[in-house]
Every structure is written in structure tokens, then in C-alpha cells.
Specification:
Layout (H helix, E strand, L loop, with lengths): L7 E6 L9 H16 L4 E6 L6 H5 L4 E8 L6 E5 L15 H12 L4 E8 L11 H19 L2 H8 L2
Length: 163
């Protein structure tokens, strides 16, 4: 196993039963398989239908957090953006935003891990399992990019801390 000082969490969320909304979960599965083959023991993985307030405790123990989700935004294929605790605080009884989870982590645990959101472009959201072909292409592009970034996570942490 490869040892690293950086504790990293990759957390995908979304509903795999709603076509491309399952991109976050599919990303985590694909990256976890790769990390296991490479012996990257500093990477941890989680996925859920949505983020929950309890996730603040989980990210408090990490140096780097990558949330992955399907996106309806006008992006080409995927984009990685920093998550700021001052981001819109959205919370309902069903879900919390990445920014809100980061804020809770800071407020409750006095921890501020470098946190990013990987937006992967999706196209279809019907009640049907399986990703569309275009979403699968975007997933592959995001996977290829993140493999490279997570091989040397210190660069992501440093970039985040210099924001």
C-alpha cells in the first residue's frame, strides 16, 4: 500500500435511479476501483443520495475533500470548483449543500479541510437507471483528470489554501 500524509475523502451524491443524477455515485465507484488497484490507502470513499449534516463530522478528519455530483449547469463536461463555507447555505429536511457542510465542519469542529465540488455535466433526469452516453463520456473525462490530481493531492490542497 502507498502511504501518504494527506487524508482524502471522495464523496459522491445523487440518485442513480434518475439517470444522470447518478454521476456522483458512478464517479466514486470508478475512482475507488482505481485507488484499490493502485494501493492508495489515503483515499476514502463515500456516497449517498444527498449530503447530510452528519457529513460535517466525516470531513473534519480529512485534509482534502472532493464532493462529486451531477450538474445541470452550462459547462462543457466537468469542472472542479472550490467550496467556500460562505457559499449559499441551503438546508432542508432532506439535503444540505456542500457549502453548508463545510460551514458546519468549521463551526462545530474548528476544521477547514480543502474542499472542492466536482460538477459532472448530466443531461437526462427521468426515473430510469443508467447514465446517458454523453454523461458516460463526461464521467470518463472527469475520472481521467481526477486520477492525475489525486496522485499528487498536495497541489490541490496548496491551491485551495492560496485562494
Amino acid at each position: 500500500m502507498q502511504k501518504s500524509a494527506n487524508k482524502i475523502l471522495v464523496y459522491g451524491y445523487g440518485n442513480p435511479g434518475r439517470q444522470d443524477d447518478g454521476l456522483g455515485d458512478a464517479f466514486v465507484e470508478k475512482l475507488q476501483e482505481w485507488a484499490n488497484k493502485e494501493g492508495l490507502d489515503n483515499l476514502e470513499f463515500d456516497s449517498n443520495y444527498q449530503l447530510n449534516i452528519e457529513d460535517a463530522a466525516e470531513i473534519a478528519e480529512k485534509d482534502l475533500v472532493i464532493f462529486a455530483d451531477a450538474s445541470t449547469e452550462e459547462i462543457e463536461d466537468f469542472i472542479l470548483t472550490p467550496v467556500d463555507e460562505s457559499a449559499k447555505v441551503a438546508f432542508t429536511t432532506h439535503a444540505a449543500s456542500p457549502g453548508y457542510i463545510v460551514k458546519l465542519c468549521s463551526d462545530l469542529f474548528a476544521k477547514n479541510p480543502a474542499t472542492y465540488l466536482l460538477h459532472i455535466k448530466g443531461y437526462e433526469w427521468e426515473f430510469k437507471e443508467g447514465l446517458t452516453e454523453k454523461a458516460k463520456t463526461n464521467l470518463e473525462l472527469a475520472f481521467s483528470d481526477m486520477k492525475q490530481k489525486l496522485t499528487n493531492p498536495g497541489d490541490l490542497i496548496k491551491a485551495f489554501n492560496n485562494l
